[in-house]
Amino acid sequence: MACLLAADIGGTKSDLAIFDLSQTADSPPVRRKRYRNREFQNFDAILIDFLGNSETPEFGCFSVAAVIHQGTAALTNRDWIVSEKELKHSFGFKEITLINDLTAICSALPFLPESELLMIQPGVMREKGVRAVIAPGTGLGEGFLIEQESCFFPQGSEGGHCDFAPLNDEQAELLNYMQKKHTAVSYELLCSGVGIPNIFDYLESTGIDRDQKYFDKIAVADDRTPPIIEGAVAKTPCTLCQKTLSLFLEILGAESGNLALKLYPTGGLFIGGGILPRIAEQISFDSFLENFRQKEKMDRLMKSFPIYLILKKDAALLGTASYGRLLFYSGK
Fold first, then answer.
1. pLDDT, tens digit, for every residue of 15-28?
2. Which CATH architecture has domain 160-310?
3. To 5 degrees, how large is the angle CA 264–CA 282–CA 101?
4. Sequence ranges of the chain with CATH classification 3.30.420.40
5. pLDDT in tens, 116-152
6. pLDDT surpassing 70 at residue 178
7. Alpha helix segments (H runs only) across the chain
8. How far is C-alpha 193 from the geometric centre of its chain's CA atoms?
9. Are 94 and 56 in contact (CB under 8 A)?
10. What is the pTM of this model?
11. What is the CATH superfamily name and number for domain 3-100+314-329?
12. 3 strand-pairing partners
């Protein structure tokens, strides 16, 4: 039985699964498990735990939240290095490849059912149009998918590290605040799990009202983003947390619009990542859409692009498996 080990290695968690390549692409994995990265020294330790005493699958395809250069990836938001050569040598894979995590999400788009998508803006969908992805998770990923009759080309990028451009006085003050701490202020530093606490700290410095219960909880948290979001969507919300989430959505909307202008995604813009699916039913996307569309002469064009939120939690793992199957097993 030819098997593929697919892994989605993020800044916070890693998802691993083994797929039987003789089964159809939409078949469930033979085995899968999710890990918290902070509990392991490196990815090898996770892989050792996952495989246990079982035989290493022939093929491996791992998506990594990192730039991949000559088969090696240094994770952007975790002090880990993952190498194709070392994994192949240490674990005995016949073939293995590393891909960017946004390449993986882009690869998953054709396999996502409508039930796993939440429409944010209807637009006008073109079946074979370019599809764009922006994914606020631990970091901010961006990518695209080109799919034609003889072409399937998913591609992640490092667009989240582009320079942040403020749209108003408040955002200009935010930029000034961030420039005192960073030589370059990227969208990732504001539109991600890493970025939400930065917005929170800026707004707190302006003296906005805060709920002391949430403020104290946030102060002692290892990861401050979850309690900030909790305070923002509570029945009696914390004003400081609520404003933080609102500003996050405004900036994310603007950068999503920038991506749409560059890629012309008539096949749709898809929002991935782990932040928004958890709270989609508790928030309004009005401020996101307002800032997405605010492109002066391009206002009408911006309204024509379909926008969806990806609800499927393991979309990157699905895309990783799909990419690996196409690379290693296509036509067999």
1. 999 999 988 877 88
2. 3-Layer(aba) Sandwich (3.40)
3. 45
4. 3-100+314-329
5. 999 999 999 998 899 999 999 999 999 999 998 888 9
6. yes
7. 43-51, 84-91, 101-108, 169-179, 196-205, 212-220, 225-233, 239-263, 286-293, 299-304, 315-329
8. 10
9. no
10. 0.94
11. ATPase, nucleotide binding domain (3.30.420.40)
12. 20
